[in-house]
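[recover] target loaded
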């Protein structure tokens, strides 16, 4: 599914909602707060109130006095853009795209949460979402001690992403990916001058400068001659594979894969062999990888090569539930984000497994934090890291 190519926030899109409510109980935010205006149906109702026959959407946002625009903005930003509502919508409204377009409109009139108003400046000046020193983006190589080359030319380019590059706990994901690329003898490289992929701008609604980032990263990738770009971050994959072609107006000449897709390919080709174990393992589908990215079966095939005892949670695949960190929710409403993480962790723990895998550094962090907070004796780890450990690579 492409997030950019689908409908913009127009009157017909909003009015198409039948207010039937099939989506309501699918929404993890509604389930946490039990408040109609935080449900997808409630959010659409509020947006509908801001329409008018004779005025533009933005004009109506500014002058309508019965509706508090800041309140509407809070409802629109207290959403993980996880897409679970879309799965339930019998009219097949493209709701993740609607939420993103609503954010774009709200951001443009200064109604976005205070914290996000700086996101554009931060990313453009520091080239990462955290406002860290751009020069230290590659320091994870020093910390982990892994052999990670930056070459002029290679067959595969590894796009690391901001979270994996800068967040201590999940730098191990970069170490695992680099170790596995080395293990199979791949001709690969890091990018010389990787910038933030830009996906945080998209989900914040701050899209006016997104193209600059896309152009820079595509140029950096194309300069290596790589025909495959791999990343361990589902948000980066969405940006590179789906948002870039829409924003640039052409398809860059490389294939974009999440690392689990590459692992699956290597396993089927016999390039990678893993000894089968018997540990009870469960898996959390990252929303941006499974529902929004369509990568569902590949991680499952990889896990099935790791253990004979793979147990799935009740909500999985396209019906998986958000860990609470999507849509910048962890930054804009950490309390709500933590509530969602705790709820998701509980459903994973209910499988009986004490080994929880995911394939997203942000999901990994959220679920691990929830486990610590709830004093659960479970291990949350990235699928890639577990494989690298099994092979004695880290
Ligand atoms: S995208 Fe997720 S959090 Fe947002 S309204 Fe839909 S189900 Fe709820
Ligand atoms: S399921 Fe679709 S049509 Fe029904 S209330 Fe939700 S968004 Fe509207």
């Amino acid at each position: 599914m492409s997030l950019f190519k689908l409908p913009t926030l127009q009157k017909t899109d909003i009015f198409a909602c039948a207010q039937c409510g099939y989506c309501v109980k699918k929404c993890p935010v509604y389930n946490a707060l039990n408040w109609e205006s935080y449900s997808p149906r409630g959010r659409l109702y509020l947006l509908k109130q801001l329409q008018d026959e004779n005025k533009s959407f933005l004009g109506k946002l500014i002058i309508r006095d019965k509706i508090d625009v800041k309140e509407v903005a809070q409802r629109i930003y207290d959403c993980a853009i996880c897409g679970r509502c879309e799965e339930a919508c019998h009219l097949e409204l493209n709701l993740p795209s609607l939420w993103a377009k609503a954010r774009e409109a709200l951001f443009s009139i200064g109604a976005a949460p205070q914290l996000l108003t700086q996101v554009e400046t931060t990313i453009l000046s520091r080239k990462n979402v955290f406002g860290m020193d751009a020069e230290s983006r590659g320091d994870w190589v020093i910390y982990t001690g892994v052999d990670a080359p930056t070459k002029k030319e290679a067959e595969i380019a590894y796009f690391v992403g901001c979270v994996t590059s800068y967040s201590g706990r999940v730098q191990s994901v970069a170490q695992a990916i680099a170790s596995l690329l080395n293990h199979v003898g791949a001709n690969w490289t890091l990018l010389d001058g990787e910038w933030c992929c830009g996906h945080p701008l998209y989900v914040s609604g701050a899209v006016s400068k997104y193209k600059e980032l896309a152009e820079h990263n595509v140029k950096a990738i194309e300069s290596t001659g790589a025909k495959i770009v791999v990343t361990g971050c589902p948000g980066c994959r969405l940006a590179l594979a789906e948002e870039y072609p829409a924003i640039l107006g052409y398809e860059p000449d490389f294939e974009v894969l999440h690392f689990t897709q590459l692992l699956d390919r290597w396993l089927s080709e016999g390039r990678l062999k893993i000894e089968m174990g018997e540990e009870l393992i469960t898996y959390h589908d990252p929303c941006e990888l499974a529902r929004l990215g369509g990568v569902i079966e590949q991680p499952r095939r990889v896990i099935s090569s790791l253990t004979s005892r793979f147990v799935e949670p009740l909500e999985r695949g396209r019906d998986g539930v958000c860990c609470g960190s999507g849509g910048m929710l962890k930054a804009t409403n950490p309390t709500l984000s933590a509530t969602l993480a705790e709820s998701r962790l509980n459903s994973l723990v209910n499988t009986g497994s004490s080994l929880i895998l995911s394939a997203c550094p942000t999901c990994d962090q959220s679920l691990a934090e929830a486990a610590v907070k709830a004093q659960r004796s479970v291990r949350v780890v990235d699928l890639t890291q577990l494989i690298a450990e099994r092979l004695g690579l880290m």
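[recover] notes: The beta strands are 156-158, 188-190, 228-231, 255-258, 277-283, 307-310, 355-358, 379-382.
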